[in-house]
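Deliverable D2.4 — example input (structure tokens):
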């Protein structure tokens, strides 16, 4: 396998971790809405979701930039790469804040908003990565 194949494999694996974090955050946010005993049990998943987000977010960024620089047909200034970087920044900010809000157990309404932003940004990021508009 070539270096490109390895980088692409690891990039996609990191993307699975990022999407996995959104999947793990889902029952946590739903339980936080309801409150009560179920919320305490679901909140124990928050550290797992945060670590998945940390690994997935960092992996997709580092490996994605490496791929864009390493592959001759792509450039960091391509529109789809720039839009992916912006979406990544939005998803990273919202995902990190979501983990902090859930771990603190403060504000369920704020957690709902941050979850929606994270999920939408990750979904849009996947669309950009798959279809590469303008490439």
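Example output (designed residues):
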């Amino acid at each position: 396998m070539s270096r490109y194949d390895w980088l692409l494999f690891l990039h996609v694996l990191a993307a699975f971790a990022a999407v996995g974090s959104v999947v793990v955050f889902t029952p946590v946010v739903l339980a936080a809405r309801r409150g009560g005993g179920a919320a305490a049990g679901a909140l124990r998943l928050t550290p797992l979701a945060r670590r998945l987000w940390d690994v997935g977010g960092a992996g997709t960024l580092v490996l994605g930039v490496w791929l864009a620089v390493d592959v001759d047909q792509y450039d960091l200034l391509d529109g789809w790469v720039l839009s992916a970087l912006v979406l990544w920044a939005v998803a990273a900010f919202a995902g990190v804040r979501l983990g902090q809000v859930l771990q603190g157990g403060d504000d369920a309404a704020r957690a709902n908003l941050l979850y929606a932003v994270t999920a939408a940004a990750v979904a849009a990021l996947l669309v950009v990565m798959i279809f590469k508009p303008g490439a």
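The CA atoms of residues 27 and 42 lie 7 Å apart.
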